[in-house]
Specification:
Strand content: under 5%
Number of strands: 0
Largest sheet: none
Number of helices: 13
Order of helices and strands: HHHHHHHHHHHHH
Helix content: over 70%
Length: 310
């Protein structure tokens, strides 16, 4: 029974990260043929909001006090609005390869914020991991600044995607107790509702101007993938994996995203792979691995307690 539960969790995490990896080139292609970043993120937020409300009708009902409902405003800002807006708009500017590589830096931001907010210790291994990850990101940004070709990358898009990871890491550090109190459908129903209410009044006029123009059928199919698979299903699959797997194991699956994104981008011909990309991948992956494998405050305290008992 435990083996089958673990297998389901592993398959769920692989499916979620593969889905997100494919979302970068698919979303980029849609934004090259009719959509733009603001329109894409508006469809993504509003579409997922509708899907989570429909799904919540079939999920266990939970009572959410008004205090928590209002706290979901902050969670929606950090975990959805800033994260998705910056990533999607950044993706519309830079290459999907750069965007997917930058995505793997999130555990490093999580480690830094955990040290500042949760007082988690920064070990030598963590510090080295942060240095390597930052070096990889810096190589990407500098190589993007040296090229005018969006198929290689764009420094503005790279920085927006980088801020998206910082925003999501901040969301995890500040609102982790809140999101653990409720099931996936309750959490996302309220978060996507608040995000929709904040975003659509600002973007609806622009969105109407974009979709009133002729848009190819393939683009609509790609947008549908981003909303249904890349957002709705991937969020559900991630929650399934997180309930069973340790955080370190979950973080390792983050490596699937750039692998899928790079392969799909090269096949679709919307990006080119350079030596600097390979070097950045090695540095970022190695840095994240060191951060993930280093000991947490809980691990250190447990080791001290064991030594005292001995």
């Amino acid at each position: 029974m435990k083996t089958s539960k673990a297998l389901i969790a592993h398959l769920a995490m692989f499916g979620a990260c593969a889905g997100w990896g494919l979302m970068s080139p698919v979303g980029k292609d849609a934004m090259l043929h009719g959509f733009d970043g603001i329109t894409m993120v508006s469809f993504r937020v509003a579409g997922a909001c509708l899907l989570f409300w429909i799904a919540s009708l079939f999920a266990p009902k939970e009572q959410v006090p008004w205090r928590d409902r209002l706290m979901f405003i902050g969670a929606a800002l950090m975990g959805l609005l800033f994260n998705q807006c910056c990533f999607t708009i950044g993706l519309s500017i830079t290459s999907p390869i750069n965007a997917s590589i930058v995505t793997t830096s999130m555990p490093i931001f999580a480690m830094i914020l955990a040290a500042l907010i949760l007082r988690e210790p920064i070990t030598g291994k963590k510090a080295l991991g942060v240095l390597m990850g930052c070096s990889g990101a810096l190589i990407l940004i500098l190589s993007s600044a040296a090229h005018a070709d969006a198929r290689v990358g764009d420094i503005r898009g790279d920085l927006l995607c980088l801020f998206a990871q910082f925003s999501f890491a901040l969301y995890l550090s500040l609102f982790n107790p809140l999101i653990k109190r409720y099931n996936v459908f309750t959490v996302n129903k309220y978060m996507f509702s608040w995000a929709t209410l904040m975003l659509l009044p600002l973007s609806s006029y622009h969105v109407y101007g974009v979709i009133s123009q002729p848009i190819p059928l393939l683009t609509w199919i790609e947008v549908g993938y981003v909303v249904v698979c890349g957002t709705f299903f991937c969020y559900i699959l991630t929650m399934i994996g997180q309930r069973t797997l340790r955080p370190t194991v979950v973080s390792v699956y983050n490596y699937v995203q750039p692998i899928v994104a790079v392969a799909a981008s090269l096949i679709m011909g919307i990006s080119t792979m350079k030596l600097t990309h390979v070097l950045a991948v090695v540095l970022v992956f190695s840095g994240v691995w060191l951060v993930v494998k280093s000991k947490s405050r809980k691990d250190i305290e447990e080791e001290r307690q064991e030594k005292k008992n001995v």
